[in-house]
């Protein structure tokens, strides 16, 4: 039988084309393997305190503060990877540098790291049962009462408050924070220190155990508390601050604030 004769030049051309397409196949396979890694942004491991609705709703990964941080971290080019711990544990983990950042801290706490610009503000108040006739005109007045506050309050509410905690034998801090509501409405303390939004939310948690319908008196003896992020890397802090400023300028920051 006759065959098809291929010249030497044609054979070289065929071999070059085969080699070319083989190389293209290798490159395309490598790109396909690399694409998932490129598509997923790196994780930024951030420490949060425990459940503090409406700021942090731990079980649902949402809340005013949580969503602000999630948005800013995304703008930084990262994926938020949260870890929720009691406030005292958060402090110890920051000290040993276990995570990239921690939320809801203040530079006055003395924790090591690089602090961001303030990104959220809480309004803490003193809360007492109206029937007790508590009278508070200043932080110093708390010294005369049995007081409960959220964990680490002595680190974030200023020097005057810290001084009061050191000289008031009836002062205590509570975690989880709903314990404050329980202690106040059951009469075990005279005054609870909390952000009013958080305290009001936790009334719904303890309502089955204590009478949360008792009238309360609010005392605005604290200035607003500005909170920051603390990073273990100065560059990450700088990128966070820039993303925060951009979110404020383009209106997305305000949209989250208004939603809550």
Structure description:
This protein has 260 residues and is α/β, with parallel strands linked by helices. It folds into 2 domains: 43-121 and 225-259, Periplasmic binding protein-like II (D-Maltodextrin-Binding Protein, domain 2), CATH 3.40.190; 124-219, D-Maltodextrin-Binding Protein, domain 2 (3-Layer(aba) Sandwich), CATH 3.40.190.10. Helices cover 42% and strands 20% of the residues. The chain has 9 helices and 11 strands. Strands 1, 2, 3, 4, 5 and 11 form a 6-stranded mixed sheet that branches. Strands 8-7-9-6-10 form a 5-stranded mixed sheet. Helix 6 (178-185) crosses helix 7 (196-206). Residues 24-37 have low confidence and may be disordered.
Beta-strand segment tally = 11
Low-confidence stretches: 24-37
- Globally, the shape reads globular
Strand content: 15-25%
Q: Which CATH class of the largest domain?
A: Alpha Beta
| Helical stretch tally | 9
Largest sheet: 6 strands, mixed
As a whole number of angstroms, the C-alpha radius of gyration is 28 Å
Q: Determine the structural class based on helices, strands and strand pairing.
A: alpha/beta
Along the chain, the helix and strand elements come as HEHEHEEEEEHHEHEHEEHH
Mean pLDDT: 89
- Name the CATH architecture of the largest domain: 3-Layer(aba) Sandwich
Domain Solute-binding protein family 3/N-terminal: 51-260
Signal peptide: 1-39
Pfam families: SBP_bac_3
Keywords: Signal
Question: Which features would summarize this protein structure in a list?
Answer:
D-Maltodextrin-Binding Protein, domain 2; 9 helices; globular; single chain; 20% strand; 260 residues; alpha/beta
